[in-house]
């Protein structure tokens, strides 16, 4: 763990944002790209 690493895949968006807040992502675009890369290990989820 630690601020340098994302939470385990499957932890959810809130957990990701908690980490991203310390991960040096200055823009929502950066967070979105990072989240897509992070969540790529998961099966696709219907975002509605």
Mean pLDDT: 67
Computed over alpha carbons, the radius of gyration is 10 Å
What's the helix-strand series?
Answer: HH
Regions with pLDDT < 50 over 5+ consecutive residues? none
Number of helices: 2
Q: Structural class given helices, strands, pairing?
A: mainly alpha
How much helicity do the residues have? Answer: 40-55%
Instruction: Determine the N-to-C terminus distance.
Output: 30 Å
- The count of DSSP E runs of length 2 or more, i.e. the number of strands, is 0
Strand content: under 5%
Sheet bearing the most strands, described? none
Description:
The chain is mainly alpha-helical. It has a domain at 7-38. 42% of the residues lie in helices and 0% in strands. It contains two helices and no strands. The protein has helices spanning 13-20, 28-39. The N and C termini lie far apart (30 Å). The mean pLDDT is 67.
Key features?
48 residues; mainly alpha; 42% helix; globular
Characterize this entry briefly:
This protein is mostly helical and 48 residues long. 42% of the residues lie in helices and 0% in strands.
Blueprint (SSEs and pairs):
Blueprint (H helix, E strand, L loop, with lengths): L12 H8 L7 H12 L9
């Amino acid at each position: 763990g630690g601020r340098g690493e994302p939470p385990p895949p499957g932890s959810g968006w809130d957990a990701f944002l908690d980490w991203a807040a310390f991960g040096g992502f200055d823009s929502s675009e950066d967070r979105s790209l990072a989240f897509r890369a992070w969540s790529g290990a998961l099966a696709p989820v219907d975002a509605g």
